[in-house]
Amino acid sequence: MHDPGFHGVFPYLVSPIDADGSVKEPTLRRLVRHLIAQGVHGLTPLGSTGEVAYLSRRQRREIVRIVVEEAAGRVPVVPGVESASTRGAIEEALAYRELGADGIVLILSSYFPLRETDAAQYFKEVAAAVDCPVIVYNNPRFTGVDLTVGLLEQLAAVDNIRYLKDATGNTGRLLSVTNRLGGRLKVFAASAHIPLFVMMLGGVGWMAGPACIVPRQSVELYDLCRAGRWQEAMDLQRRLWPVNELFQKYLLAAAVKAALELQGFDVGDPLPPQPRLDVAAREEIEAALRAVGAL
After folding, report:
1. Which of 165, 283, 279, 262 is nearest to 214 (CA)?
2. Are 61 and 95 in contact (CB under 8 A)?
3. Are β-strands 80-83 and 161-166 bridged in parallel, bridged antiparallel, or unpaired?
4. What are the φ and ψ backbone dihedral angles of 43, each rounded to 5 degrees?
5. CA 268 – CA 126 distance, rounded (Å)
6. In this structure, are residues 154 and 120 in contact, taking their beta carbons and an 8 Å threshold?
7. Secondary structure string (H, E, C) spanning the chain
8. Disulfide-capable partner of 12 in 49, 95, 100, 289 (CB 3.0 to 4.6 Å)?
9. Assigned domain for 23 exists
10. Residue 269 belongs to a domain
């Protein structure tokens, strides 16, 4: 299996959906073109920002098809595979590979409590079913499953499990991962609020919803980190911080969709029962975007 060496800024794409449930294909294609033109290093549809838990199987596959087609090999496309069942995850992963995805972000959503051995088996079985790099996702707040350092050590022994996307914000744990697993499991931050610190710990980039709306600034931050220009990187992250504060204050998908609408992308409302942001919230987002040159 060839590992293309994923790195850099991978925006989580929103899922533009019409009121009748159809994917807004022209909008999604335009967003993909825009992000690539801004210099992002990859694209991740079907994440939390993409409201993956609210999408049907048909919608998920249609989104992957459109993003892969529009990216046309210019950057890797690594969709999220989210399921509570091993069989369901394998079916989705195989379908995305057939559509041309370059890798998968593997998410385990637990309805019933699972033992660590059960979680490990899920990731191992899905990884064994696909011939592409696998990024395992740790976000216990949303999924109900916490991937411990010991569990990650087991998963790092699987040939095509090459990356960890971590949303805990626990930099101490990430230092343990990088110390113990070194190059066996490369780390992506899964949020926009600590990318600088993850890069300082040896991470390879970040996958984040706000990168959809500040792509140029996100790429600039990554380049500063790669160059070891840490003070300049810190100054830039500080300037971007008010944007990230708003995306922690409001529902993530609703906030990113509101921001993209302000930037001229007809992405539609968040999927019900999520509410559309009110006027006051949208005004807050607009002010933050103007302050960082994103409008």
Report:
1. 262
2. yes
3. unpaired
4. -135, 140
5. 33
6. yes
7. CCCCCCCEEEEECCCCECCCCCECHHHHHHHHHHHHHCCCCCEECCCCCCCHHHCCHHHHHHHHHHHHHHHCCCCCECCEEEECCHHHHHHHHHHHHHCCCCCEEEEECCCCCCCHHHHHHHHHHHHHHCCCCEEEEECHHHHCCCCCHHHHHHHHCCCCEEEEEECCCCHHHHHHHHHHHHHHCEEEECCCCCHHHHHHCCCCEEEEHHHHCCHHHHHHHHHHHHCCCHHHHHHHHHHHHHHHHHHHHCCHHHHHHHHHHHCCCCCCCCCCCCCCCCHHHHHHHHHHHHHCCCC
8. 49
9. yes
10. no
Is the Cβ–Cβ distance between 221 and 43 less than 8 Å?
A: no
CATH number, domain with residue 66: 3.20.20.70
How long, in residues, is the chain?
Answer: 295
Answer yes or no: is pLDDT of 223 > 90. Answer: yes
Cβ contact 46:82 at 8 Å: yes
pLDDT per residue as tens digits for the range 181-213: 877 899 998 876 678 989 998 999 999 998 999
**Which structural domain, as residue segments, surrounds residue 133?**
8-226
Bond from prior residue into 113 cis (ω within 30 degrees of 0): no
Nearest to 12 by CA among 25, 31, 26: 31
pTM for the whole structure: 0.95
- Residue at 55: amino acid letter: L
Tell whether 278 is covered by a domain: no
Looking at the 3D structure of the chain, how many domains does it have? 1
* Residue type present at position 287: A
* 105, 44 Cβ separation under 8 angstroms: yes
Task: Measure the N-to-C terminal CA separation of the chain; round to a whole number of Å.
Answer: 42
Is 274 in contact with 253 (CB distance < 8 Å)? yes
Asked if 130 and 79 touch (Cβ cutoff 8 Å), the reply is no
Domain contains 288: no
Task: Provide the CB-side half-sphere exposure for 24 (13 A, CA).
Answer: 17
Looking at residue 34, its amino acid is H
